[in-house]
Write a structure and sequence with these properties.
Blueprint lengths: L1 H25 L5 H15 L1 H8 L5 H10 L4 H22 L3 H19 L6 H14 L1
Helix pairs in contact: 1-2, 2-3, 2-4, 5-6
């Protein structure tokens, strides 16, 4: 009985993470890939077939797989993420015109986030695919 409840719990987490990831496609401050990583984790415990489908997605799959296997981010992806963060935070600051204290807090958060992302190791997804193809041909 507890296993069934846990399975539904992880499925709910997975579907919520996917919903938040889809919202993140349209809102600049919502990260899509982070939520999809959470969804893969949750579905791997409840519905491995759904986790596999997310990992096979042509746009997000390679990035998620690289993160999960190597804890690294492709240089092009880092650049896109960094630009999105700066643009999103800038829009937020311009539209909301928060107090000086809140602005300082948001800018500090942005800088910490940028530092974290850009301090992750880099791994070239295309080269990884080529290596995998070479290994498959060798076998």
């Amino acid at each position: 009985m507890n296993e069934i409840i846990l399975k539904y719990f992880y499925s709910c987490i997975g579907f919520i993470a996917i919903a938040l990831g889809v919202i993140g496609l349209f809102l600049p401050l919502m990260p899509t890939t982070c939520f999809l990583i959470v969804a893969v984790w949750a579905f791997s415990k409840s519905n491995p077939e759904t986790a596999k489908r997310i990992l096979q997605h042509p746009q997000f799959g390679p990035t998620i797989t690289t993160w999960m296997k190597h804890k690294s981010i492709d240089r092009k992806v880092k650049c896109k993420i960094s630009m999105s963060i700066v643009i999103g935070f800038s829009i937020t600051l311009l539209i909301t015109t928060p107090s000086l204290m809140l602005s300082a807090f948001l800018i500090s958060g942005m800088l910490i986030l940028l530092f974290y992302i850009n301090s992750r190791p880099e791994r070239n997804i295309k080269k990884d695919k080529e290596c995998l193809n070479c290994l498959e041909l060798a076998n």
